[in-house]
User: What shape does this take?
Amino acid sequence: MTTKLKIVLSALFMLAASWAMQAQPGGGGRNMDPAERAKQQTASMTEKLALSEAQTNKVGEINLKYANKTKAARDEADGDWESMRETMGAIRAEQNKELQTVLTADQWTQWQKEQEEMRANHGGRPGGPNGPAATDEKTPPPPKGDKKPKKKSKSASE
Assistant: This one.
């Protein structure tokens, strides 16, 4: 097998594993080992951004470095979510600065779009930054099929 084929197959395997882990209860990998988190993110980036072998290796190193920083920040936060949010934002900014040196201009633009989509998707969940609080009650949708068509009155049609 050629090296490129091995890398592509490894990336696809990791991507499939990441999908399976996200489907599991418990936050989709929130407590994942930093090395596994870095592998998952690198595999996703390799697929979405069509990274070269050299880029994949460098991005993997960067992702591992920042996965370790993220884990340390979570451990140190000890439930102080506001403090952790600020720290995570700073870590993400550092990581993006390093990633930008490895990615091409087109890949960087695509990565920014991917991040925006992730923020939009995660931001709308209950308790998320753009979603209702977890304790808010939602108005249930009207039942389907219960509406009967209104009959026209004869006076309106004449």
Q: What stands out?
A: The chain has six helices and no strands. The chain has one domain: 3-124.
